[in-house]
Amino acid sequence: MVAESTRFEDRVLETVKCCQERKDPPLVWAMEVSKCVREAGFSLPSPELGVVLVSSLCFSNNNPYLWKFLDQAISSGLLSSLQVLALLTSRVIPHRRTQPEAYRLYLELLSRYALFLAPVGTNPCREKIVISVDDALELSKNYGFHVVEFGQAVVLFLFTVIINLIDSTMDDWGLQPASVGKISGLFGGGEHQDMDIDSKGNQNDKRREHCELLKKTNAFMTMEVLGKLTENRKVMVLLRLVHLNMAEKFNGLLQRIQFLESHKSVSPNIKSSSQILVRLSANIKRGLDLEYQLNKRQLFGVMIDIGSCSSASSYNFGAGRAACWVPFDIYVETAMDGRQLPATSAVDVLTDLTKTLQVINRASWQETFQALWVSALRLVQRERDPLEGPIPHLDARFCVLLCVVPLAIVHVLEDEREGTSSGNMGTNCNHGMGGTDYASRRQGLVACLKVLGQFSGLLSPPLSIASAANSAASKAANFISNFRNGNDGFSGSGHGDNCVKAGGNMLHLIVEACIARKLIDTSAYFWPGYVSTSSTSLSDSSPVQVSPWSAFMDGANLAGPLRNALIATPASSLAEIEKLYHIAINGSEEERSAAAKILCGASLSRGWNIQEHVVHFVVRLLSPPIPPNFSGPGSHLIDYMSMLNAILFGVSSSDTIHILSLHGLVPEVAASLMPLCEAFGSLVPTSCQKSSTGDEISAYTTFSCAFLLLLRLWKFYRPPHEHCITEHGGTTGSELTLEYLLLLRNSRIAPHNSKPLDNTKKVSNLPEPSSAYPIYIDFYPKLRSWYCQNKACIASTLSGLCSGSPVHQIANKVLSMICRKMTKGGTVSGNASTPSSNSASGSPVSAGEDAYQRPMLPAWDILEATPFVLEAVLTACAHGRLSSRDLTTGLSDLVDFLPASLAAIVTYFSAEITRGIWKLVSMNGIEWPSPAANLLSIESEIKEILAAAGINAPNCYTEGPPVMLPLPMAAMLSLTLTFKLDKNLEYIHTVAGSALDNCASSCPWPSMPIIGALWAQKARRWHDFIVVSCSRSAFKQDQAAVAQLLRSCFTSFLGSPHVTVSPMTAQRGVNGLLGSKISACGIRPSIAPGFLYLRTCRTIHNVQFVNDVILGLVSKSAQESAARWACANSTRLKSSRVSLASATSWAKEVATLGASLLCVAGGVQLVQVLYKETIPTWLLSTREEKPTGVGPVSRILEGYAVAYLVFLSGSFVWGVGATSSTRAHSRRARIVGVHVDFVAGALEGNISLGCDPTTWKAYVSCFVGLVVHFAPAWIQEVRQEILRKLANGLRGWHECELALALLERGGIATMGYVAELIHGIC
């Protein structure tokens, strides 16, 4: 092979030499050399010939004839222009000073052929040319990936040439930017020795002058060549490829341009070529801004162009504008559902949603932040006068407004500062040619806060918060007064509060929350109108109340009035919380308990400015460290019983656990509770301890509170049908298992330990968690045993219990305790099914033994026996051997004895209700409580609520015989009616209430009105809350009701699509959807349809049905919007752009609302079904009905709206950027890839579609266009072959620009294909 190559080289050199001696024209040279190539058996263009000519002839025979021959050889196809230019680049640029003539000729060739790097036909030649170019320019080494495609070589060649031409010019002009690195050291100036031909030293002065002049002109010609190259659209596309897929490399080019522009005034060379530099800079910027746009001559392009919310005013928050931001309102209101405790932080969700909506709406940051704040303010105002009941109230809503939203904004700003922004690569991106996006985000926040004062109707604080708002306003007034008097802004203690009424509102609270997170500074106090003049003048003479926290920090004891004052007053600084934590760990037993109660008091619920730190300290107190002097035996947690008891009861309130959930701490709380349950559940109880405050503390109460709190986190009582497994191993419900919470908690440990917190999130002296390692349920044998038993109880009936076993003996003792009115000595039979007269051992109970004495056994042992006890007493009641009153009393005694037994009662009764094997009992007021007194009125009120929301509910009950319930349901309901409505028993009420709701949903007939009627008799002040809660049960199993409710949601938000209805005649927008208040003033509570939907959508049994309904509503509404604006006798839209914009805007509003409602109903699982099943089925199905008046425009808008629905649904759960804060992001690549593969297959003709072809084309074009515009990161996650199929299908529709834009964002793998594709469309 070497010999053949040598012979070929010699033959070529000899031929060239002969032609040169004969002075043949270049065409003859080309013909003679081509004979050599053919004789050697090489194909054309010949890479071997290119190597020989450039390496052997360029400088040894550096004369015009050779350069003319190269020109002729390239133009005639004898040589590859790409290879020749690459070889010349690596040889000529380093020696441009010593070979100015060669450099000039190289520039001429480059200017002529760099824009015509046509692909080579034969594969062997292509591969050899790519290898040659790669070796010459070291592309694989410099760009970090193996260059194997011809197109990749073209892209990187052009970029490398542009970079090195700029570098060589700066070097020739004496400019050496230190911050700009070279692509390769091979092309630097002055780093290589001069060639022999220029080192002879026999040049005359005229020759030297000519060379010097040529060197100067070469530099200017280089700039001209750069300008010519970069103004070509093909080169712009290739440069944009580098920008999108190798941003770090492209930033080097931008830095070079910036450097040249910044030295215009100091460099005469740059000044003389300033016009060329301006053109070069403009060309590069044009390339960056060269975004894909649909052909404006087609209707699809017009719709995408006008479909943005950015065309509206930033200050217009009307119904039409509100549709752009309604996901904010829907999410924050959904987060207020106290029955759901999501494991994902609301801060993370809002962070991703904020960035996603800013990109999709093409909005400014001022508008984005303003929409976020307005949604949070509406959230608070919606429940400023809440219904009384065991649900989260204002504390959780203010947590969102004053803690979650500010923290989300902190994350949005920090993501941009750290360079991890998930913004769109193709739009609204910072190209490094101006200011930073971080500054624009911060400026947008400040501007929106200044404008927020205009929303006076939303800023009025509820009465319970008015004092805090006044304090915030007084603080600003004091600051201004001190500043004017020449004092420091905050002089003296920071705990003083003025008594003067400063007219504070929620804007003052928002500003303080932002200042606390360093989002803004105290200059906000000087904003016009922020502090009234009267408040400033009164602040000087206003008396100051000393905060109890000042006394605490001065060393006062935590006792008496001070303790109560600290519980009621939120802390204002992190130092106060840290001191409180250390007392809770290291203080005396009384101090520990007091510190824990204070920490769970107002500092947790209303310490909004430091709440994110307080919740972490609370969680860490659940896992106290091992004392230095602890030596066992047993668990060190027992020594902290009083403190843990106080912290557990404080955390168990509905508001507090909801706040912890909003901060995403449910997994951490679950992991902390497990060792507590294991330790205290294994402890044999002794007599109850009493603290100085009179609180009774025992192992049972501490265990029960921890255990029931743990169970609330993962809905242990769900009926069995909700535990079914989906295709990929997920559950149809939401986070149903304890294993999921532990998996999520363990996944957070490594990043937390390896990544230091930044200054805005750092807590000084933050205690390290005692279990900074993975936790698994197997670590806790007792808990694991109960967990398995609980799942077995749900899955099937109890198996037989062996007589004489330890569990059997314990069951007998428990049964004897609760069945006091039965025959003395009653026991559990061998299968624990019926009570008998004999003990477990078969011998009678001795006369001296108290059969009714409460067994003092570990809680785990009692819980293990409880299901068998329940089966025995329920069977006895069913057979008439135990009265219903005795059954209820016995169950109540069991819960009083061990509150944790409620878990076993709930699990057992829930499972038995779903099995449907128990007899019905009459709720007649004799054996079981009767709801007859108010049942019909409760049902009537429920129907009124549903009717107001557009739902027609049938009558379930009439006057006549008493209503019936299954025995387990009646027993469960009767038990809950015995509970005292005590705030300290809230940890029991929450479990029982949720269990009743789930038991009712498991019955084959409506039972919630019965439950509501009986509870309304017991708790009259909860009447409205009970009625509203009962109204939600209508949707769990009734698909027709769900469909009606969704239609009402669309109508209430969007208004009527008919022009005869004025938008002013009915409330619409967010207030129409969710209501301005949960319950309007009046006798009956009034619930907006959207609010009702948000409280029921996640309990719908067949949640996939929601997909079909929403898709149908979006499709129908889009068709109606087209018909609304169409001419009477034409299928074309009205000619004005306003009508088209209105129809398109309506379609997008419908899709936005539909996507929002879909995502809150089923999250990522439902979106996955939408992409993989619902949309493909809709496209494949043939529409049997043919609506009248549906023309092409209606079909186009239908496809457009459905495309928006699909895209927005994915964006809301996955985000549009390359990174996300939520775990759902990991599923995006697979789901999007499956859907795109389906679309590509249909475009190829492999799938037969049933929908209208116009709808199909509109759907595909708009969906791909939306992804290209707003979510290019999705494209990089799709396989290359699928992208190529999709692009080829689009080209078949003559959508070449869209196909190019799609591939352009496909990553490095598609760069080569794009480079070859542009030859056909540019």
Automatic annotation (TrEMBL):
<feature type="region of interest" description="Disordered">
    <location>
        <begin position="826"/>
        <end position="849"/>
    </location>
</feature>
<keyword id="KW-0472">Membrane</keyword>
<protein>
    <recommendedName>
        <fullName>Mediator of RNA polymerase II transcription subunit 33A-like</fullName>
    </recommendedName>
</protein>
<feature type="transmembrane region" description="Helical">
    <location>
        <begin position="1201"/>
        <end position="1219"/>
    </location>
</feature>
<feature type="compositionally biased region" description="Low complexity">
    <location>
        <begin position="829"/>
        <end position="846"/>
    </location>
</feature>
<dbReference type="InterPro" id="IPR039638">
    <property type="entry name" value="MED33A/B"/>
</dbReference>
<keyword id="KW-1133">Transmembrane helix</keyword>
<dbReference type="GO" id="GO:2000762">
    <property type="term" value="P:regulation of phenylpropanoid metabolic process"/>
</dbReference>
<dbReference type="GO" id="GO:0016592">
    <property type="term" value="C:mediator complex"/>
</dbReference>
<keyword id="KW-0812">Transmembrane</keyword>
